[in-house]
Amino acid sequence: MEYVAFLIDFILHVDVHLETFVRNYGAWVYALLFLIVFTETGVVVMPFLPGDSLLFVVGALCGVGFMSFPIAVTVLLAAAILGDQCNYHIGRYFGPKVFQWEQSRYFNRRAFLQAHEFYERYGGITIVIARFMPFIRTFAPFVAGVAEMTRWKFSAYNVGGALVWVLGICTAGYFLGSMPFVKAHLDKIIWAMIFIPGLIVLGGAWQARRKAAAIVRG
């Protein structure tokens, strides 16, 4: 329980914890950043680690001189790209084992072909948009691997999505993080960055379920 409490506190007060870490351990903060982002994007069972809020806070700390912006961005880009690639290959490894269950209601050959077709058609934009969606960000590359999305296509959109995600949010933090209003309400901004994308995902899933139910009834 102490570990869970610390994790929640770290997510909600990531600015305080990172600043303290920099003061105590200096350049080791870059190793910590790599570990957090790689684990969140590369290990399918760790989707609850901070992502968007972490990038924003890193940008803000770079803006006030606590860290080097070029080094931080390079480290975060490497972690994001390698994490998604790792997650994709995990899914690619387990996919054939999962979809060999021909009698399964959900994990059968037909379900695999549908998933594969979806990722071949829409996988690129899915990988990019998922970067900005907590939880979805962790599962999208894994599912892309399970569905055997073409390797080169996944890799291209993985790199492109990572560039947009890391550079976009870190740059926003760099220029906006030192503003008095942002500093005074940073905790609320972190909450918003966690919950608003999640609510959008839940709303989309609810609408899709309603449409599917209407088709079945009709």
UniProtKB/TrEMBL annotation:
Residues 49-174 form the VTT domain. Coiled coil: none annotated. GO terms for cellular component: plasma membrane. Pfam families: VTT_dom. It is found in: Cell membrane. Keywords: Cell membrane, Membrane, Transmembrane, Transmembrane helix. It is a multi-pass membrane protein. InterPro entries: DedA, DedA-like, VTT_dom. The chain crosses the membrane at residues 27-49, 56-82, 122-144, 156-177, 189-208. Belongs to the DedA family. NCBIfam families: PRK10847.1. This is DedA family protein. It comes from Ramlibacter rhizophilus. The lineage of its organism: Bacteria, Pseudomonadati, Pseudomonadota, Betaproteobacteria, Burkholderiales.
